[in-house]
Amino acid sequence: MFDxxxxxxxxxxxxxxxxxxxxxxxxxxxxxxxxxxxxFNRGIELRWVVLVLNVAAGSSxxxxxxxxxxxxxxxxxxxxxxxxxxxxxx
Length: 90
Description:
The protein is an all-alpha fold. It has helices spanning 17-32, 34-42, 47-57, 61-72. α2 (34-42) runs antiparallel to α3 (47-57) and α2 (34-42) packs parallel to α4 (61-72). The radius of gyration is 23 Å and the shape is elongated.
């Protein structure tokens, strides 16, 4: 079941080899930090919150989904103050 050679044995008959194991590891890490990558790429205001949530509780599916939601939600644009009207200026 445990093979510490160059192959990557999953324990149920599938041997990925060293390249397959490395590829699987890279894809797994990339998927785990995906919310943080999206947040920093988009430059959202809560990117540090997403990173902390992703690193601290990223192994929880619920926390990962919350981080993904925060990273992908549409940013709130504050309403611009209205210009003073001509009646009030004088």
